[in-house]
């Protein structure tokens, strides 16, 4: 049985093994891996998640700081200048005297406090670790979503480009059919209805072409917004991607992997840990808090700069414990326990959703593989039917309507093939994301299916 990394990479590794070799070019079009790396720098959603992760990681340091010793320095300087005038009467004579006094004092104090027991601080530290783990999983999820966004828009451009090429070819074919019908009418071998039918099909092909051009332009703009600039071109897909059986072949195995590895489930699990740590912190407010404290005080100064000097060193243990808080702490604890129950239910919901998404991803990937095989066969069948109908039309065995139908079916099958190819690749990435396994290695594996000698949209503007 395949497990671990072997199991994880089986589907995409098969794609690498059958990928076409592509020579290096002096100025290669942008590949899938290039697009992803550029998105890492320019995608605002991913940048926001990265900043949130960096901020959340600081919660560990904040929580640890409450368990570490703290040292404070206090310093003061005092000066008091005083002047007194005394008046007295002796033997009927009034006399006065003036006295002054100057007071100077400089004081330094260093205090140290080391928590010996603080359930509140322990809970805060545990909460910080849980929050840091949660934001890390949130970033992992954002990174996987970024891969899907890049791949989806990259594939969207390529699919639109291939659809446009098919629409152009169809337009050219319909133009030739219309010209042949008009020429036949001119020499009297074609009826007016044949010209009208060919004209209608040509106009329909023109409408399809206009829509295809618009879809390509929109898809290019969507990719440019994600990457921060419009690429000069994209590396195209080297033929039809190999359709492989999914491994493992049972959806239950994919569901189990999702429960174990999904970042959505992991975030919900860490949220439970966070709320439980908050309960501990609140309980700590009702428990005794014990600190070791020490201080050193240096005082120098006195009246008339007398040079008085004193030093004082003190240390000991302090204990504090609330006796009565009016029920507020009990209410806070009850609120925190309710938050734990809420987080537990959210975890259960996340597990169910992850299981469903994994099954859906498996079924979608399996369906996309079957569709790709069927559509690829349909293209060959449509090509054979078109060629046979062309020959039959030349021999007088098929009508022009039958020929036009065969032409349109062939080009429609080409557009369907473009959607099926990229839909299949996207479904593989979506399945890896559903089970929490999608990362840069998967992008690199799929990038091997694209070649710089097969650039897309190079002639899109003609």
Secondary-structure blueprint of this entry?
Elements (H helix, E strand, L loop, with lengths): L3 H14 L14 H11 L1 H22 L4 E21 L2 E25 L1 H69 L4 H36 L6 E4 L13 H11 L1 H22 L4 E15 L5 E12 L7 H67 L5 H35 L5 H8 L2 E7 L6
Antiparallel strand pairs: 1-2, 2-4, 3-6, 4-5
Helix pairs in contact: 2-4, 3-4, 4-5, 4-7, 4-9, 6-8, 7-8, 8-9
Sketch the major β-sheet.
Answer: 4 strands, antiparallel
The N- and C-terminal alpha carbons lie at a distance of 53 Å
- Count of beta strands: 6
User: By helix and strand content, what is the structural category?
Assistant: alpha+beta
Major β-sheet strand ordering: 1-2-4-5
Task: List the domain count as a whole number.
Answer: 1
User: What string gives the helices and strands in order?
Assistant: HHHEEHHEHHEEHHHE
Helix content: 55-70%
Question: Which residues form runs of ≥5 with pLDDT under 50?
Answer: 1-9, 13-26, 458-462
Kindly report the CATH topology.
Outer membrane efflux proteins (OEP)
CATH classification, class level: Mainly Alpha
Q: Describe the global form.
A: elongated
Instruction: Count every helix, treating DSSP H or I runs of 4 or more residues as helices.
Output: 10
At the fourth level of CATH, the homologous superfamily is Outer membrane efflux proteins (OEP)
Fraction in beta strands: 15-25%
CATH architecture: Up-down Bundle
Mean pLDDT figure: 86
Organism: Thiohalospira halophila DSM 15071
Pfam family, one: OEP
Region (Disordered): 78-98
Main location: membrane
